[in-house]
Design a protein that fits this description.
Distance between the termini of chain A: 23 Å
Largest interface: A-B, 27 and 20 residues
Distance between the termini of chain B: 14 Å
Number of strands of chain B: 2
CATH topology of chain B: MetI-like fold
Structural class of chain A: alpha/beta
Number of helices of chain B: 12
Strand order of the largest sheet of chain B: 1-2
Oligomer: heterodimer
Number of helices of chain A: 10
Bound molecules: adenosine-5'-triphosphate, magnesium ion
CATH architecture of chain B: Orthogonal Bundle
Largest sheet of chain A: 6 strands, mixed
Chain lengths: 250, 293
């Protein structure tokens, strides 16, 4: 299923290095591509640098060296490029991070109006379509603290999608959820994958990886240990460390 | 929110004791010191009937109150500007800005306000204001503009003193508001910055739409406290002859010697405006809280 839908590389990262001030090497010579329309799942033990990698992709975290190019735009010192990349890359966080002082609708509207300069009517129309898509349109007028975790995360996904991003990053989007709510968020993510969205997902949900991912990356200590299709990974991983990790989580 | 007013035995005891204390003070004054109470003299200092026109005219206490209100209003407004600007400096990534912000706060916090008033009055308003030609500028305006300026700020002859007084109080209060603004912004979760950043908002947009609205709601109680302090500190500029409430109180005391009545009256007026301000803000708080839930 993977190969026929993916296109040219939309994310290209080359020899990334990142060391935190406390001396932790979070990324060590990390290189790779993500193709247009591809769904990549990143797995690895805690502290492997998965979040750091995602956060570097939209500039939330600075790299020490290496190059990141997204849809032809280099993530460099230029403010304009960085802003352009932030507009093209949507991100969903473990803790949802909805804006608590705004209604659900305003959360989804905000960036459309302020960043994309749409009129309120236009924005609201898009927002309602997106909220429908994540099946929470009936809560448009509610405030985030009136929603369950699963509902909040679906709103957060709609909010990111409202920017019409070319790439979506998910950092353990279901890890903070009660078990009974994980499914509803995964369903939204699966639908998005089937629609051809380019996605990079850090997740512990192996079922999700099996079902929709084109490629799984196993990383440890800031670098890629093994990479391959989900079948390869779950049936016949090459590296001893990968096997060990999978045996622990499956 | 619906707290019932419950009066306990302890409340009754304390109230009784307080009343007894007040009665004792009055007794001491009247009996032992032979203090002659003369409340009757005070109302005319609020309003009096102008002999020529036969109409009620505001007298110095009302005028003083109005000056206090104007002074506090402009000082608060300016203090908010100073507080927000230096508050943002305090959280800047650049050491340079952080140092400026910190110096301002430390300097003001370690200085008696009265000294600041004199510094401003003698150095700034004596040297800089004439240099800028503020007073000449006001004097040379057409009458209607002059009247408006007098209504909003002060009469031409009081203009320099008034503005330097307002700026002094603002500079002073601004330092405290700086710390509140800083604390308010820093209390907002990192995730709010990250989510708004990822959506493509600029720093200014993040502040305007995401961070400040939440921060303001959180710091409204301490901020109200500073607004009330602004009103209270406005009394200090009476030393540079701004004819605000306290200054007028001293005038009446000097000419009538009804000391205690005057200061009780002045206290009551301050109490009234400060109390109504905090009630107003509390209403606002309840309103803001509701808009969230
Ligand atoms: N802001 C920071 N300052 C210092 N060290 C950090 C910071 N953020 C992450 N680290 C360290 O960098 C390493 C990689 O962290 P990262 O959050 O990327 O791991 P992760 O793979 O996402 O782990 P997890 O599964 O626990 O989320 C860890 O050792 C972590 O302690
Ligand atoms: Mg992580």
């Amino acid at each position: 299923m993977a190969l026929n839908k993916v296109g040219d590389p939309i994310i290209r990262v080359d020899r990334l290095y990142k060391t935190f001030p406390n001396g932790v090497n979070a990324l060590v010579n990390f290189s790779g591509h993500v193709h247009r329309g591809e769904v990549v799942v990143i797995i690895g033990p805690s502290g492997a640098g998965k979040s750091t990698f995602l956060r570097c992709l939209n500039g939330l975290e600075e790299i020490d060296s290496g190059t990141i190019v997204i849809d032809g735009i280099p993530l460099d010192e230029k403010k304009k490029n960085r802003l352009e990349i932030r507009k093209e890359v949507g991100m969903v966080f473990q803790q949802f991070n909805l804006f608590p002082h705004m209604t659900v609708l305003d959360n989804v509207n905000l960036a459309q109006i302020r960043v994309r300069h749409k009129s309120r009517e236009e924005a609201t129309q898009t927002s309602m379509e997106l909220l429908n898509k994540v099946d929470i349109a009936d809560k448009a007028a509610a405030f985030p603290d009136q929603l369950s975790g699963g509902q909040q995360q679906r709103v957060a996904i709609a909010r990111a999608l409202a920017m019409m991003p070319k790439v979506m990053l998910f950092d353990e989007a279901t890890s903070a959820l009660d078990p009974e709510m994980i499914g509803e968020v995964l369903d939204v993510m699966k639908n998005l994958a089937r629609e051809g969205m380019t996605m990079v997902c850090v997740t512990h949900e192996m079922g999700f990886a099996r079902e929709v991912s084109d490629r799984v990356i196993f990383m440890e200590k800031g670098t890629i240990v093994e990479m391959g299709t989900a079948e390869h990974f779950f049936e016949n991983p090459a590296e001893e460390r990968t096997r060990l990790f999978l045996s622990q989580i499956l | 929110m619906n707290r019932k007013l419950k009066i306990t035995t302890l409340d009754v005891v304390i109230l009784t004791l307080l009343l007894a204390l007040a009665a004792y003070v009055v007794y001491r004054l009247t009996m032992q010191l032979n203090y002659k109470w003369n409340w009757g003299i005070l109302p005319q200092y609020f309003f009096y009937i102008d002999e020529e026109t036969g109409r009620w005219v505001a007298n110095i206490l009302v005028k003083g109150l109005w000056t206090t209100i104007r002074l506090s209003f402009w000082a608060t407004l300016l203090a908010i500007v100073f507080g927000v600007v230096t508050g943002l400096m305090r959280i800047s990534k650049r050491l340079f800005w952080r140092l400026i912000g910190a110096s301002y706060v430390e300097l003001i916090r370690n200085m008696p306000p009265l000294v600041l008033v004199f510094i401003f009055y003698f150095f700034v308003s004596d040297q800089i204001m004439p240099l800028l030609g503020v007073e000449d500028f006001v004097r040379s305006r057409p009458d209607n503009v002059k009247n408006l300026l007098t209504f909003l700020f002060a009469s031409p002859q009081q203009f320099t003193a008034f503005t330097s007084g307002a700026i002094t109080v603002a500079v002073f209060q601004g330092a405290y508001i700086t710390e509140i603004v800083r604390a308010g912004i820093q209390s907002i979760e990192k995730g709010q910055w990250e989510a708004s950043y990822a959506l493509g908002l600029t720093w200014g947009q993040q502040m305007r739409w995401v961070i400040l609205p939440q921060a303001v709601k959180r710091v409204l109680p301490p901020l109200t406290n500073e607004f009330i302090n602004t009103i209270k500190y406005s009394a200090i500029v009476s030393v540079i002859s701004i004819q605000e409430l306290t200054f007028q109180g001293m005038q009446i005391m000097a000419s009538t010697y009804v000391t205690i009545e005057v200061w009780i009256t002045i206290t009551a007026i301050y109490l009234l405006i400060c109390f109504s301000l905090s009630m107003g803000v509390r209403k606002l708080e309840v309103h803001l809280a509701r808009s969230e839930a």
